[in-house]
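User: Here's a chain of 625 residues. Predict its fold as tokens.
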Amino acid sequence: MPSTRTSGPRPGHPVTALLALLALLVAGLAAPAVADEEPEDETPQGRMVLVLDASGSMQEPHGDGRSRFRAAVGALREVVSALPGELEAGLRVYGSRIDDGPGSCQDSELVVPVGPVDKPALREALGGARPLGNTPIAHSLREAAKDLGDEGSRTIVLVSDGEESCGGDPCQVARDLTERGLDLHVDVVGFQVDAAARNQLTCVAQAGRGTFYDAPDADALVSQLSRLSSRAARAYTPRGVPIEGGDDVQDAPTLEPQAYLDTIGDGGDTETYLVDPAPGSTVHVSATDRPTLLDLSDSEQLELLVTTRDGDVCDQQRGTGMGAFDRLAPITAAVTVPGEDLEQCGPGPYAVVVNRFEGDEVMPLEVTYVEEPEARATEALPPAVESGSYASRGRFGRQVGDAFGAPSFTGAPVLEPGTYTDSVLVSETLYYGVELDWGQQLTCEVEFRRSPAVNRALDNRNPTAKVSVHGPLHDEFFDSSQIEHNSELFNASRPVRVWSSAPPVRYQNRSGDPEVWSASLPGTYYCAAFLNASSEYASAGEVPIRVGLTVSGTAGEGAPDYVEEETPTPSPSEATGGDAEGDDDADDAAAAPDEGGIPLWGWMLAALLVLVLVLGLLTRRAARR
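Assistant: Prediction complete.
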């Protein structure tokens, strides 16, 4: 076969070498410097350690012929089978080795280290545990934090039927742990707990930036743990900073504009905080408590006041429980005090006082503080939305994926518009957040789908399926024109769709009808889905749902012009770092090359030009041969 000859320089030819060098130089010029870049983060999406109570009290009967511990182990086996593959998980058990006496309050063992999900190891460890000893919750929380390491999104899930029995303060330990990093939080599932245990475990969850879930039986335990493990796999980070309110203004902490997590009922039925807004600012503040037991919502009442330090009331509003709906729904009181009203009230700081009536249980308390600067020419902004005129039905849009709603506002996932799937327990309320700007409007549509198991459990009882929309201060929008489509009877034998919408976000809504006041600030708005039922049917099971979140309107439309705080204009020397005198010299220096001479890219560009010239000469010589 005759040989073939390609045009161009041969390997080893000087032109070839120059072309290779030229390619390297061009690549060096085009590619960004990577020597100082951080390596890619290979941390998994989330890490979770399950802390299981194996104390002696778990030998008590569950109600179905098994002990609480056997029922819990059976539930956990179901959860383990469905653990997300992307989750790193481990198991710690306390109270299972020493009955009492020396060492029993340190009886907390990591039986499966935190790592890629090892389902056989988890099942084997669960099968080998026995309920025996004390309840060292505080010690176990400290050890669980060590199990998770110091980086990444970390979740401790505590499952317990009782309170601390070793003299520790698990609530304070949880608070200390969260101060170590915002990516660590503690969720708690109370398994058939009494009032005293619920109170302490509620405090642990709130201090740990997590959520307390009540599990009256094994089915509810499966549901709650499945939700928590799926959420942990997505590196979920809750909002809110743990805080302890004061009994009065003398020991009250000062709030900065953000969300806070506290409890009410553990040290009294009043929590006090201080705010010190800038002159002319409008103060928005809300307090939300959440019943952790269905019957608690019947008599719960909450009052919020903004006062002077001497107790003179600047404004107030009272929120009351909605026990008639038989649902575990938060109760919110929200107050807005304009700058001119604060000025008439007197100089700050001001006290934010939360009073709770009737209840005798410890409740999770969420406090939100927003400080809004003074706005100019607000009369030119779009008018307030009229009552009954803003209903806007959404549509189930593109399917985004699963969502894991939370029974609290600060725990709610913040989602993009779209359609999500989830499941809700009968009597449970789940929240989903969406960010809105000025001029935008949120519409929520929820489809409650068929559930034969729930239908049998309800025994022809028809709970109400309902959707509600809440503003950034957590208060609910009430629109009489939407009552006919935001709730419907549900018997779990056929799908039911309900929907509701919030008013468009406008500054002037605060001067309109009361039902649109809450839509006068941008921020996180919430969609809530729930099925109401009496306590007799609260354990009927899970109902699959679809949640459609629709956002309409033009972002930023009608935004107010806020008065900015005056700041001194920096002098030329402050702006450039040089002397005030010799400004011309400073300008010349700024335009001149660095003191080190021509930068590297300049040398590389010069070398490239030289190589191009040499390459041209060599190519011409080669062509003449």
